[in-house]
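Would you mind writing out a protein's amino acid sequence and the numbers that encode its backbone to help me picture the idea?
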Amino acid sequence: MVHRSRLVPITTALFAAALLAGCAAPSTSGHTYTSGEARRPMQVQMGVIQAIREVRLEREHQTGAGTAAGAVVGGVAGSNVGRGRGAIVGSVLGAVAGGVVGSHAEQSLSNRTALELTVRTDAGRIFAVVQEADGETFSPGQRVRILTDPVRGTTRISQ
């Protein structure tokens, strides 16, 4: 049987791990499709890469899971400092510090490297698309396919 004093840190760690697992943002890679995009007709154009720039994708709205998980872990860790009022102060300071660390962890887990691809279509239209860098390499002058979902208004570039 697990002693109660060991159960709290174990439970807290599992709770924090579950919350942080929810921080991962959905992929915006040119190779990744959602189930809603499968079997939908897409408009296909051909074009040429004009320019490429590496950019960062940030999650628009953080879930708060990282902050919450960090606060819980920090509060529990801080409560083990001292006795009485010392434990209360340690718990509060630990929760605040843990919340800050957890928020930064969530942001760093959800930020991803992306490419801004400027393309000139065969019809002469020039536009840029940002998509997650997933290992597919592009270079200026390269011919590419431009796939557009007219219903969702999304566009992706592929080889």
Observations:
- The two ends are 58 Å apart (CA to CA).
- The chain has a mean pLDDT of 75.
